[in-house]
Give the backbone structure.
Amino acid sequence: MKDWLEEFARALGIEPLSHDETALVLKLARDVAHGVERKFAPLSAYLLGVAVGDRAAAGLSRPDAFGRAIERAWRTVPGSGDDADPTRSKASGED
C-alpha cells in the first residue's frame, strides 16, 4: 500500500505522506465513518487536505499546516475520545 501511495503522490506532483500523517488521516477517516457518516470519511480526508494546502500556501511548513488542520478536525469528530488528542505527540512534533 505504501508504494502505491508514494507513486500516487508523485503522480500528483506532491510530497508523499509521512508514516504519522498516514496513520492520522486513516484514524480521522475511521472515526468520521463510525461517528458521523460512512460516506463522509473520504470527504473529510479531502477537506483536511484542502485545509493543509491552504495553510501551507499561507506560509506554514507542511508539518505545521498538517498539525494545525488535523487538530482542528478532531474537535468536530464525535466519538474520537479513545485517545483524546491523537495529534498531540505525532503531528505537533512533541513526543
User: Anything to note?
Assistant: Confidence is low (pLDDT under 50) at residues 88-95.
